[in-house]
Each structure stands twice: as C-alpha cells, then as structure tokens.
C-alpha cells in the first residue's frame, strides 16, 4: 500500500505536523493495514454530518480505551477544502492518528480520478495490495459502525484474532466478578437444602 504514495508526503495530524516522506516511514505506517481514503471537506454540509461518525468509528477501532490493541487500520484525509486554513481547522477536530496529503498536493485530484470519486463524503476502502474493497463505504459505516471493519479485515486477509471491542471485555470482566458469588450462593443453597432434607428424615 505504501507504493500508492511513493514519492509523496503524508502529514500526521498531530501538533508537530510530522511528515512521512521516506519509503521506510510510509511502509511502517501503511503496510499490512486496511487503508481508508476519506474524500471530504469541512465546509460541506453532508461531510459535517458524516465526519463525526467517521471520527468515532476510527477512534473505536484504534484507541486502546476501546480495543485491546489498535486495529490494522489507517486513514488518509484527501481534502476538498477551499483553503489550507479551512483544512487545518477541520483536522484539528479529528483524531491525531489521521494522515493527510499536504493542501497543495495535486495528487489529491489524481486519487479522485483513480477511484472515480464524484462527490463527497466518500470513503474508499483498500486492501494492503491496493485492491478496492469498497468504492464508497459511507453508508456501510453509517449502518454498521465499527462492525464493518471485520468484513474488511477478512476481505483483506488480515486475520487478527486479538481484535475485540471493549464491550466484549466488559462482559468477560462482569462474568469473572459475579461468577464466584453465584457459585457461593448455589453452594449455600445446596447445603441448606441437604440440611432440611436430613431433618425431615430424622
């Protein structure tokens, strides 16, 4: 997947605005991951409605507060913002792990043509080898939320047995806390029943 951005620069959405421009840096960030290309704009009404959903979707899959470890997922924002200031303003509200192309990079237009993006918002989902999993996953993300990543993971042959949402662990944790209490209650009830049965026989 890093080959898609060979010779290009990707900017990390952190306060330092770190740039990934070497083959090694791009490979470490993109290889063996499902890649989302988010074509959008901070000024577009439909994008303003969808972007918070995409932000939460991404966070729930990559933030260790929600998952045991970050999923094999990376997102590159392909801006249609009118100015660099508007792009920066929009990105400040999005996750720090997002990547983006520099505002003046004409490669954004090449990506639009390559993946036939006619309107925004659009989310193109790619396998690590660059094959398209979904031409536009906006409605899928709206409908299924983080669960749709499992489908992409299988399609991309990224078998990750450790992928579990936080609620799965909450369920396990609640069982581990209450099970001993239930077993103790059952044991006491059983002993009381045996004592009553013994008294009746006497």
Look at the helices and sheets and give the structural class.
alpha/beta
Question: Which sequence of SSEs, written as H and E, runs from N to C?
Answer: EEHEHEHEHEEHHH
Q: In which range does the helix fraction lie?
A: 40-55%
Unreliable runs: 161-183
SS field, number of helical segments: 7
Give the C-level CATH assignment of the largest domain: Alpha Beta
The total number of structural domains is 2
Mean pLDDT: 85
Distance between the termini: 80 Å
How much strand content do the residues show?
A: 5-15%
CATH architecture label name of the largest domain: 3-Layer(aba) Sandwich
Describe it for me?
One of its GO terms (biological process) is photoreceptor cell maintenance. By secondary structure, the chain is of the alpha/beta class. It folds into two domains: 2-155, 3-Layer(aba) Sandwich (Glutaredoxin); 165-202. It has seven helices and seven strands. A seven-stranded mixed β-sheet has the order 2-1-5-4-3-6-7, sandwiched between helices. The chain is globular and about 35 Å long. It starts with 9 loop residues before the first strand and ends with a helix.
């Amino acid at each position: 997947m890093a080959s898609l951005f060979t010779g290009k620069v990707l900017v990390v959405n952190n306060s330092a605005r770190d740039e990934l421009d070497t083959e090694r840096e791009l490979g470490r960030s993109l290889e063996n991951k499902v890649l989302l290309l988010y074509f959008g704009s901070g000024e577009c009404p439909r994008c303003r409605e969808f972007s918070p959903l995409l932000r939460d979707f991404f966070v729930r899959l990559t933030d260790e507060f929600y998952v045991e470890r970050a999923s094999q997922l990376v997102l590159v924002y392909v801006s249609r913002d009118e100015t660099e200031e508007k792009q920066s303003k929009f990105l400040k509200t999005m996750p720090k792990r997002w990547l983006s192309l520099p505002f003046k990079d004409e490669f954004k237009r090449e990506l639009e043509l390559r993946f036939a993006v006619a309107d925004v918002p659009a989310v193109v989902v790619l396998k690590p080898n660059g094959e398209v999993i979904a031409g536009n996953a906006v409605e899928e993300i709206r409908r299924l939320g983080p669960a749709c990543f499992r489908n992409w993971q299988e399609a991309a042959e990224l078998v990750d047995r450790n992928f579990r949402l936080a609620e799965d662990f909450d369920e396990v944790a609640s069982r581990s806390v209450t099970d001993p209490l239930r077993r103790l209650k059952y044991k006491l009830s059983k002993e009381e029943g045996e004592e009553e049965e013994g008294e009746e026989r006497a």
